[in-house]
């Protein structure tokens, strides 16, 4: 059996998937909250592969204090580490939203906003 090892020297410390690092998801108040759901990472990797473009995480994890400070929803999925607001380089948010809606029409949460797309992996379907 042949075993192929990843060149660890090319990975940044703390990387959590092929294209994403935990620091990208950290709460913006620098409190240290950086929980990221594995299913959410899978969805983001699918978006990355589909568009073949980098994804910027505008907002990932939010602690209670930061969520309140920015006027986030009381039941925000960001507070659970299961939501992100993303921008795909050179792709309009509506295009990203439409792709995800076709890809996962009966589950998760999607929000179409002027400057970003909200994605979360809640148990039920939500469209905003």
Characterise the protein shown here:
By secondary structure, the chain is of the alpha+beta class. It has a single domain, classed as Muramoyl-pentapeptide Carboxypeptidase, domain 2 (2-Layer Sandwich). The protein has helices at 38-51, 64-69, 93-103, and strands at residues 55-59, 83-88, 109-112, 117-120, 126-127. Strands 1-2-4-3-5 form a five-stranded mixed sheet.
| Largest sheet composition | 5 strands, mixed
Q: Please give the radius of gyration in angstroms.
A: 15 Å
The assigned CATH architecture is 2-Layer Sandwich
Structural class by helix and strand composition: alpha+beta
Distance between the termini: 49 Å
The name of the CATH topology is Muramoyl-pentapeptide Carboxypeptidase, domain 2
What count of helical segments does DSSP give?
A: 3
Shape: globular
**SSE order:** HEHEHEEE
Helix share of residues? 10-25%
Strand content: 15-25%
Quaternary structure: single chain
| Mean pLDDT over the full residue set | 90
Task: Indicate how many domains the architecture comprises.
Answer: 1
Number-wise, the strands total 5
Enumerate the spans where pLDDT stays under 50 for 5 or more consecutive residues: 1-14
Short descriptors:
about 130 residues, alpha+beta, Muramoyl-pentapeptide Carboxypeptidase, domain 2, five-stranded mixed beta sheet, about 15% strand, globular, disordered N terminus
Topology:
Elements (H helix, E strand, L loop, with lengths): L37 H14 L3 E5 L4 H6 L13 E6 L4 H11 L5 E4 L4 E4 L5 E2 L1
Parallel strand pairs: 3-5
Antiparallel strand pairs: 1-2, 2-4, 3-4
